[in-house]
């Protein structure tokens, strides 16, 4: 089976060294086809923090695809936030804020939900809704179709409703109808998987990841990442949590994700 490693919210600048090494070990052990990082690469969008992220990513054993999060835009430097919000991000990862990846078995479409004028929640524009839906409709039947973004589209805790991305009511059903299988996100440092629905009978999944590397964990939830294994219409989802006692990421939860093809 093909393997995808989903990482989110590493927050370089607040990284725990032992967790960083454990994640590198996990990636080297699993040898994923692709590694997807759904934003908040840094804590404060500083050049030094992006340089630290670049050094880590260079050690990973697979192609890496990233989209920005709200922490990848300067917070305190208001001139940079408004005039060149993605300058340090693009200097590290290139000019595209919404990359795509395609192979015989996989299509990944990136969406930039961060906005300089939105510090907590993000936004999906009507143009983004249509672009992603059009790209999904071009996918081949044998491809697992993933959309990756930073901000969540669903909440399981009432306190997270304020973090839900603006425009989700239009984006989610349009993308599910267009063939999306999984929407990957982060932002709230709370891992979970939840069904999402189109306008008809078709359904898909959204998978949230916790913070991969930062000490900024939530409610006692450890650092965590997701692994997705897929082959010929079969999709297996795994959550891996960092275990302090062993110094390793260990399998915490696993489930089958039924694909509505």
UniProtKB/TrEMBL annotation:
InterPro entries with a match to the protein in the record: Calcineurin-like_PHP (IPR004843), CNP_phosphodiesterase-III (IPR050884), Metallo-depent_PP-like (IPR029052)
Molecular function, one GO term: hydrolase activity
Database matches in Pfam families: Metallophos
Source taxon at top rank: Bacteria
Domain Calcineurin-like phosphoesterase: start-end pairs: 3-190
Entries under Gene3D superfamilies matching the protein: 3.60.21.10
Record keywords, A-Z: Hydrolase, Iron, Metal-binding
Family: Belongs to the cyclic nucleotide phosphodiesterase class-III family.
This protein's name: Metallophosphoesterase
Organism classification: Bacteria, Pseudomonadati, Pseudomonadota, Gammaproteobacteria, Cellvibrionales
């Amino acid at each position: 089976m093909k393997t995808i490693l989903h990482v989110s919210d590493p927050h370089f600048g607040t990284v725990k060294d032992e967790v960083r090494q454990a994640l590198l070990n996990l990636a080297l052990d699993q040898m994923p086809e692709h590694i997807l990082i759904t934003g908040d690469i840094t804590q404060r969008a500083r050049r030094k923090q992006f340089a630290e992220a670049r050094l880590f990513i260079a050690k990973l054993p697979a192609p890496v695809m990233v989209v920005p999060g709200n922490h990848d835009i300067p917070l305190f430097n208001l001139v940079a936030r408004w005039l060149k919000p993605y300058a340090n991000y693009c200097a590290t990862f290139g000019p595209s804020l919404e990359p795509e990846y395609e192979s015989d078995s996989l299509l990944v479409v990136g969406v930039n939900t961060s906005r300089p004028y939105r510090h907590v929640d993000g936004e999906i524009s009507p143009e983004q809704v249509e672009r992603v839906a059009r790209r999904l409709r071009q996918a081949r039947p044998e491809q697992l179709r993933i959309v990756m973004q930073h901000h969540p589209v669903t909440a399981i805790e009432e306190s997270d409703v304020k973090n839900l991305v603006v425009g989700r009511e239009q984006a989610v059903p349009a993308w599910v109808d267009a063939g999306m299988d999984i929407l990957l996100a982060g932002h709230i440092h709370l891992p979970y998987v939840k069904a999402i629905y189109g306008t008809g009978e078709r359904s898909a999944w959204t998978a949230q990841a916790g913070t991969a590397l930062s000490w900024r964990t939530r409610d006692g939830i450890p650092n965590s990442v997701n692994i997705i294994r897929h082959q010929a219409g079969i999709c297996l989802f795994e959550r891996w949590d960092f275990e302090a006692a062993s110094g390793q990421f260990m399998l915490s939860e696993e489930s089958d994700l039924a694909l509505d093809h």
